[in-house]
Design goal:
Layout lengths: L1 H32 L5 H8 L10 H28 L3 H22 L7 H12 L7 H28 L25 H23 L6 H10 L10 H21 L5 H18 L4 H19 L4 H36 L5
Helix pairs in contact: 1-2, 1-6, 1-10, 2-6, 3-4, 3-5, 3-6, 4-5, 4-7, 5-8, 7-8, 7-12, 8-12, 9-11, 9-12, 10-11
């Protein structure tokens, strides 16, 4: 048992290290080229490294490739929205498409994380950043390059272990997680119920954020998607509470970093540390992981479009609370509906 725990800890460090390298290297290249403004596209491509955790390599190749394709499609859709200056209803329709496709793909292929949070985050940020027509292809190619680099890193363990002489690390290496295809996921009522919950939640939270005039309304949307559970998962409000409290503490950490106005290399270091810490903790305690996720996300946003730091921090805090509260209401409504359906069934011996 002790040996298994040590093995899993070593695997966590390996996964976190891959994710850190995947995001740090493209950002360092951008700093060298003087194009830090393109950091979000590199960061979103690098998020491909967050998939395939603990999976056998043949399965990992399928899941990571699927996640990479969907992530790039969401970035491309966001760029299309940005370059055309699409109105709000079109952006909202694109968001519904991203959520629906993300949940259907995750449920069919068995992606982990099982929620479309990274797809939604990529789409909304790319849609919000002003994009001249001549910048579309460079930004898309950068995202594709970062995605390809992340894919190679995720699959690199197989090559490295074989070079080191570990012949047990073949395509059928035994790793903790097994995920299979669920070709009929699109027929599952629970999948469509989850899609409906997410769509209602993001439209409500995003609409309220826009009505009261808070900047960065996508934080409220991302918070809803991050809190609502995937199909057939337990509907618990604790994750929403963890997100609100963890984000509040994460904002304090981010303030300590951003308010002094550090140089760019410090911001890249913060992103790298945030990626590593988030990967280590996210499977153990979601609230603690947000101490790293929040500085990571806010630093990426700040690099994309620098704004007044106190305003950025306040927006993140208020909109996370708004998104979390919206998700809690949906969770309570879903739980009440499940209780009514259970009460309506006839008792059996």
């Amino acid at each position: 048992m002790l040996e298994r725990i040590r093995s899993l800890r070593a695997l966590d460090i390996e996964v976190a290290s891959r994710a850190t390298v995947a995001v740090a290297v493209p950002l360092i290249v951008l700093v060298a080229l003087g194009r830090v403004d393109l950091a979000p596209y590199a960061a979103f491509g690098a998020m491909t490294s967050l998939y395939g955790r603990s999976e056998p390599y043949r399965l990992r190749a399928r899941t990571v490739t699927t996640a990479a394709v969907v992530q790039l499609a969401c970035i491309a859709l966001g760029l299309l929205v940005a370059v055309t200056g699409a109105p709000l209803p079109v952006i909202a329709a694109g968001l519904v498409v991203v959520i629906t496709a993300g949940i259907l793909v995750a449920s069919t292929v068995g992606l982990f994380p099982r929620t479309p949070v990274f797809f939604v985050f990529a789409y909304l940020v790319c849609a919000e950043v002003p994009t001249p027509a001549d910048e579309v292809w460079p930004r898309m190619l950068l995202a594709a390059g970062a995605t390809a680099f992340a894919w190679l890193l995720v699959m690199s363990g197989w090559v490295l272990r074989r070079l080191a002489g570990d012949r047990s690390a073949d395509l059928f290496k035994r790793l903790p997680r097994e995920a299979g295809l669920h070709a009929a996921a699109y027929r599952d009522p629970q999948v469509w119920l989850t899609i409906a919950e997410n769509v209602v939640g993001v439209l409500a939270a995003g609409g309220i954020a826009l009505l009261i005039g808070i900047g960065h309304p996508y934080w409220a949307v991302v918070s809803v998607v991050a809190v609502l559970p995937p199909p057939r998962a337990r509907h618990s409000t604790s994750r929403a509470i963890h997100r609100i409290l963890g984000t509040a503490l994460g904002v304090v950490v981010t303030a300590l970093v951003l308010l002094p106005g550090p140089p760019v290399w410090v911001l890249i270091l913060v992103i790298a540390i945030g990626q590593f810490g988030a990967e280590i903790l996210v499977g153990r305690h979601y609230g603690a992981a947000l101490l790293f996720i929040t500085p990571l996300a806010l630093t990426v946003a700040h690099l994309a479009s620098p704004v007044d730091v106190p305003t950025l921090l306040l927006d993140r805090l208020v909109e996370t609370a708004l998104g979390g509260a919206t998700a809690i209401l949906i969770l309570l409504a879903a739980r009440a509906g499940a209780s009514r359906r259970g009460a309506g069934r006839p008792a059996t011996a």
